[in-house]
Amino acid sequence: MSSRIVVKIGSSSLTSAEGALNREAIQFFADEMASLRTSGHQILLVTSGAVAAGFREIGYSMRPRLLHEKQAAAAVGQALLMQAYQQAFAAHGIITAQILLTRTDFCSRKRMNNAGMTVDELLKQGVIPIFNENDTVSVDELKFGDNDTLSALVANLVKASHLLILTDMDGLYSGDPRRHPDAVRYERIREITQEIYAMAGGAGSSIGTGGMRSKVDAAKIATRGGVPVFVGKVSAQGDLQNAVNGVGRGTYFDTALSSLSMKKQWLGFMSTPLGTITVDTGAEEALTTGGHSLLPVGVKQIEGQFHAGDVVEVLNIKAEVIGRGIINYDAEQLQLVHGMSSSNVYQKLENIHRLEVVHRDEWITLK
Ligand SMILES: Nc1ncnc2c1ncn2[C@@H]1O[C@H](COP(=O)(O)OP(=O)(O)O)[C@@H](O)[C@H]1O
Ligand SMILES: N[C@@H](CCC(=O)OP(=O)(O)O)C(=O)O
Asked: What span is annotated as the signal peptide, if there is one (predicted)?
């Protein structure tokens, strides 16, 4: 199988601040992707720009902020965006396909498998699949918002050899260069630590959404799934090929030492937690560094109406998210026994099938 490359292009690279598609830019990116394809790679594109391309057409004077206005703008802009790509790729005799996804599509393995099979078939037929979030049906709390996360999930789904996140900045700097002109650029990140997160700020322009922060989030998801990531700028002929060859103008994120199984990727990045539990310091250590399961004695607080088998988010006593796991208790049961030693739990609850609140095999550390 030829290698699969997922290219993500942000709104800031495709549209003007006034809200118009930059057709020249779209042609340029299509040319770059076509030439990558000629060199033997399969290409998948994740593109933003629907809201930015649609808001002026619809009559808004600036990029809307309200959800229903953004959705209306996206419905207009998505058609314009696709038309522009179709035209640009047609110059190379390449057919494109539109795939609109929401976060909930990734929650269901069945929907994900269906999307995966459709993509396989499109690639087999030589088509370039073009993804965007299905903005019209996404509700606020289930939105990707920016497309960086979507691109990482797509890259993991298709087992890509590279994820290239193209933006208006040539990589990750020690601070947002728009505000810190003396910031220095990182060529390579071997491990995404809290310090790296601290450097990455939000969107610097009025067009983009997630900024560098959501790109680092995406890099974390992809690299833990075994896909190396490039975040940077492509603006001259040959830049995209250079990005693939390791000499692009941007930052490279190495894959994590051991890549996660699909089950753990689902747990960490696609599932929807139905509750939150807070654990004490000992339990935090046991889960995050000790490789142990979570026992009732370490649980301090419980929120949400979850049932055994649901996914919950786990917080430490500083209220930071440390990971997610599949819970073995209903919320009401756990309320009765949290903080108790194991022997007391057995006395209190007669028919528990597993003592562990979260078993280590059904846990992912996200800190
Ligand atoms: N540490 C950083 N290094 C580089 N850029 C940063 C950093 N922190 C914030 N940014 C901002 O992130 C922006 C890119 O993200 P965004 O505007 O969302 O673009 P896109 O539309 O391509 O997704 C840059 O223009 C920059 O202002
Ligand atoms: N789905 C939205 C993406 C919004 C957005 O701005 O994303 P990005 O430019 O990738 O930070 C759109 O097409 O407008």
From this structure: none
